[in-house]
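Late entry, evening session. Most of the bench is empty. Finally got around to the prediction I had been postponing all week. Sequence below, unchanged from the version circulated by S.P.
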Amino acid sequence: MKSRTNRIIFLAVIALSLALFACADTHKGEPAAPQGSAPASGVTVGSQGAGQPAAGVPVTLAERGQAEPPGQVSGNSRLTEDERNTIEIVRKTRNSVVYITNLQYVHDFFYSSDQPVPRGSGSGFVWDDQGHIVTNFHVIDEGDKFMVSLPNQKQVEAALVGRDPTKDIAVLKLGQQVVGLAPVMIGTSRDLQVGQKVIAIGNPFGFDHTVTTGIVSALGRSIVGAGDVTIRDMIQTDASINPGNSGGPLLNSSGELIGMNTMIATPTSSGVGFAIPVDTIRKIVPQIIQSGKVTRPDIGGVSFVRDEVAQRAGIEGAVVLEVSRGSAAYDQGLRGLYRDNFGRLLIRDVVTGIDATAVKSYDDLFTALDGYKIGDTVTLAVEREGKARKVTIQLVGTD
């Protein structure tokens, strides 16, 4: 009995030894895990190998030594061609746009002195290397002092060189020489296309050098400007224009000036802004810089009734208010308003045409004259008490 028991124990020991030997041989054939490799799910590791990411942190393909697949790139290469174009234009014009503050002197009762008080603000752009800044007339209107904030945040006082209210254009000149400013590149508005890209730069609500983009929404718009006459051929754009943008440049995709941001359709309008075309600016600004004023062709010695007054009276045409004695118009028989024996104010002459162009208001006449030159001879169609006649006048210069 004892011998049998010993045999059973002996066989059990041999079986256990064989089992342990088989397990050891199996583990020897498995590859060892690399140093720092992530543990199996559910295992907590107290430390990582040097230079290895923590468990659960995504590893990029580059870190794994693999190439990025097509369409998944990093850095500036992710930008579209249009974005790179906008960024380049902004970079080139960063020293071409300024912020203008219009100050008006107000008498201080307590100190018995005049103190400058901000009346308004807007934008402007550098015209040349002589320190001339172009902006809208309504930005500087009724101002006594003008401070220009440069791209480096330095403020420089500027003087008013001249203005043209009828085109809503004004020119300032910096009071000191400033190094580093870059005149804006002058383009043309003659060949603009509806739908082409535009970039507006300015200082809306005082946020300097704000950039917005859009397209040319329409061309040839006619909008009544700050001078109470219609500005023709304005550019309509959906680039965001807000208070403070007035006077800032509207640029094309080459970074060239194509217009000056001027107004929006209504205070609550969105995406309906207007800019004065650069071809108009190029015609006006050099005159202001040279002589401080704009000289344009005019009938000479004749003033006209305001259009709203004529419209209320139901009159169609440019109603002559007064004609100066000794003028060519007076010699040709043009006469203004007069009073009859009962003191009533009566109309004499109404201009209804100039050459082949019909005139339904003074605004029409002013716009038509803008297409002539000083010294040109024109034929006016004039009506008096229902009778029509022709009057020939040589245009003279007026400011």
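Two things to note before I forget:
Helices lie at 2-28, 81-92, 137-140, 278-291, 307-312, 328-331, 362-369.
The chain has three domains: 97-174, 185-293, 297-398.
Will write this up properly tomorrow.
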